[in-house]
Amino acid sequence: MLSKTHLLLLMVIASLTLAGCGASSSSSSAESNTELEVAATHIIDNIIIPAANDFQAQTLKLDTDAHSFCSAPANLTTPNLNALKDTWTDTTSTWYTLLPYKFGPMEASIIVPHYLYVDSYRNDHTDRSNTVRSAINTAVADSDAITDTYFTNATPSSVGLLPIEIILFESALSDFSTPNDRLCSVLKAYTVQLSGRANLIANGWSEDYRSSGKSYQTLLLTKQLDIILDDEDGSSAISKIVVSIQDFFDYLTRRNVTADQAKISDTIWTHVQESIYSVNAALNEDNNGDVSVLALMINNGYEQEAETVKSNMTLMLSTINTNQTSATDATDMKNAAALLDGNFKREVADGLGVNAGLNFSDGD
């Protein structure tokens, strides 16, 4: 039989052992949380903010080029119109690079989210080409003066990338006729509005989010978001990124994006490619050596799950790079998107340990 002294000694050893295990678990959890924060910071600093800045720069170029095109009769040439079309295409591609990250400054407006003023289809999946085309014709035929601020108070569904696409890709050079032609004035008013909205999104990320005096980047990464703004949720940066990317793949799966979007210019596949390249970069972003999302999953013991995500991303990349012509191609893209939609709900969230409490999308 053990003496009281021996029993006391065993109890002390046991308590020390448990305490040691607890400290190890806490240390591991802290290390994991730190790695998640590092991964999120890399994605925000190296992918999301550059995408927002690129979109801002491209909308400014589109606006500048539109004003130059309409500034003198000598500038109303077919090469200049074609160059303006190319600028619109480049601008839309930068938008699609940013589109998988539809949170924070993309939704910052208290009344209506900023992204709706760029791409209202993303919200309700309604093809408004005919409605917008009619609105353009009405504005051109109207007698009211059309200034650069003409669309300042317009509804989200009537502005953005779509009306500019319609004007540039459906108008003949003769439709612009003179620098003072109303179609030119309408075009310039649309590009001013788009550039202004892009400024709000980019500045929200890097300068001042919702008049808080701090950037969204700072508020999110320093965990002050719900402290400074009491109507914001305090979920982690990596959680917001994972949920937003999942929501984007849900959008690609459920909606006829390749049939309804950028159909006049016939450029949608180019834009979707940019979205997928952006997400693929987010999964692999490691800032030249630090931990990436996929590496974190492997480190957390989810090696097979990480391989599944990589395999499905490879499938998606193959689909969008080779299939761009038929309904079958669109179905292939949707099927690949559905796999990735599920991956971000399960494998990615579980592998990062951020599943609890996440509000995943099941249809916009």
Describe this structure in words.
By secondary structure, this protein is mainly alpha-helical. It contains 15 helices and no strands. It has helices at 4-69, 78-98, 121-124, 129-141, 161-170, 173-176, 182-206, 216-221, 225-228, 237-254, 257-260, 268-284, 293-299, 303-322, 327-352. It is globular and about 65 Å long.
Short note summarizing the structure:
This protein is mostly helical and 364 residues long. The protein is built from 15 helices and no strands. The N terminus is likely disordered.
Multimerization status: single chain
Please, how many helices? 15
Give the mean pLDDT: 87
Q: How large a portion of the residues is in β-strands, by DSSP E?
A: under 5%
Strand and helix order:
HHHHHHHHHHHHHHH
Annotation, overall tally of beta strands? 0
Helix content: 55-70%
Shape: globular
Which labels suit this protein?
364 residues; mainly alpha; 67% helix; 0% strand; disordered N terminus
Compile the SSE list and pairings.
Elements (H helix, E strand, L loop, with lengths): L3 H66 L8 H21 L22 H4 L4 H13 L19 H10 L2 H4 L5 H25 L9 H6 L3 H4 L8 H18 L2 H4 L7 H17 L8 H7 L3 H20 L4 H26 L12
Helix pairs in contact: 1-2, 1-7, 2-5, 2-12, 4-5, 5-7, 10-15, 12-14, 13-14, 13-15, 14-15
